[in-house]
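Annotated sample (chain length 216).
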Amino acid sequence: MDRILINLKERTSRYGADFSGGACLARAFFDEDPIPNPQMLGITRMLIDSSYLTETRPSYVRITTKGWQRIDELLQNEQKNGMCFVAIAFRESTDSIREAIRAGAKKAHFDAIFMDEREYNDQIVPEMLECIETSSFCIMDATVQNYGAYYEAGYALGKGKQVIITCRKQEFESVNKPHFDIAQHSIIVWENKEDLIEKLEKRIRATIGEGKVALE
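Output written by the structure step:
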């Protein structure tokens, strides 16, 4: 229910807008079929019964004042949670990089989320998008060029998330340096694992703040 509320909020720019109970709700459920299915109808009914949505006319709903209050609460909680999404190429050559990122985030009291470590039953794209949306910020490592990582970082930026970009010095100074678009950002250029951990922790604390995860 919370996820659907956030998705509906992304599809309106004003209070009091009406949503089609078919196509618009379907997109909020990550479903391309505009014909409501039983699950969609059931959750919509739960949102209405909880006073987060109200029916305004046949096949149309509207976010209520209570619904907007819930959305505001959810968005504030997302910014204060202890998770960060990591966009990185999943290869054996990046194992040491991901562990350094995990350690640097942990020192700033954030848990790093890696998609290949997640357990899920549904398709990966909706799960990935939800992880980005519910994380406080995103870390992207550009040492090994990867279209998926660029996409994830771009999506995070589009959602208003802070994106911290890291790159090993050797690759940053080579002919295969990061793409021009991200080269405009203040990239953390690191030389070894310890350097990455230290610089990442400092950048997180300076630009994001401290998370909620207690150090073990």
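Annotation: The chain has two domains: 2-76, 81-207.
Annotation: Residues 65-80 form the longest helix (16 residues).
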